Amino acid sequence: MEERTVKIPQHHHCRVCGKTFIGDGLYCSDECRGRDGAEARKKLRRYLVCMAVLWAVVVVAVFAIGI
Ligand SMILES: [Zn+2]
Fold first, then answer.
1. How far is the CA of 36 from the centre of ligand 1 (A)?
2. Ligand 1 centre and the CA of 8: distance in Å?
3. 46, 52 in Cβ contact below 8 A?
4. How far is the CA of 48 from the centre of ligand 1 (A)?
5. Regarding predicted confidence, which is higher, 6 or 33?
6. From ligand 1's centre to the CA of 19, what distance in Å?
7. Greatest alpha-carbon span in the chain
8. Cross-strand pairs, 21
9. pLDDT, the chain, mean
């Protein structure tokens, strides 16, 4: 009798492209690692801009009220 089941070795899914790969880490390639880093930096920048706008609104509101 022939063994038909194909054993899939221990593998991971890339955080960026979702491709399966064998080995350690979160990414299938350096390209994906770089892309995820750039994406994270972009998100952080957007968050900081959001906070700055929020603070600006608060400061303007405080001055408008006249405390
Ligand atoms: Zn990838």
1. 9
2. 19
3. no
4. 27
5. 33
6. 6
7. 87
8. 12
9. 90
At residue 5, the pLDDT reads 74
For the four alpha carbons of 35, 37, 39 and 42, in that order, the dihedral sign comes to negative
Q: How far is the CA of 46 from the centre of ligand 1 (A)?
A: 24
Distance between Cα 57 and ligand 1 center (Å): 40
Q: 53: which 2 tokens?
A: 């706008």
d(CA 17, CA 26): 11
C-alpha of residue 14 to centroid of ligand 1, in Å:
5
Q: What is the pLDDT of residue 2?
A: 63
Query: With contact defined as beta carbons under 8 Å apart, do 32 and 11 qualify?
Result: no
pLDDT at 44 over 90: yes
Element (H, E) at 13: strand 12-13
